[in-house]
Amino acid sequence: xxxxxxxxxxxxxxxxWHQYLLGLILIVAGFFHVQKPKIFLSxxxxxxxxxxxxVLLSGIAEMVLGLMLVTAEGQSIAAALTGAMFVVxxxxxxxxxxxxxxxxxxHKGFLWLRLLLQFGLIYWSAQYL
Length: 129
Known about the structure:
This protein is mainly alpha-helical. 66% of the residues lie in helices and 0% in strands.
């Protein structure tokens, strides 16, 4: 029996492939928050304090939640916290629409799609509650 991330040692079940995909997306996104913070710092709204700290903490939280999402013991709490995290990110996406960063050269419609994507991510994470 494989314990930990891929197969629950207590319930002996595999998770659906899309649950692993969301976990991987969270881990990769969190990694980039930590390794390439300049991208994320450039979209932080001015009203938030301690931009560097918030980007670092959000990256760590995404990686931890991504790992928890693919364990039977952590799945439900990770799903709830991931959904809450995506809700917290909504004002950041709205701020990016109203004040795009200087490096953003594409059509503003992509920013609206990104905002809509957040609602899809919230729904996706809720599937594992």
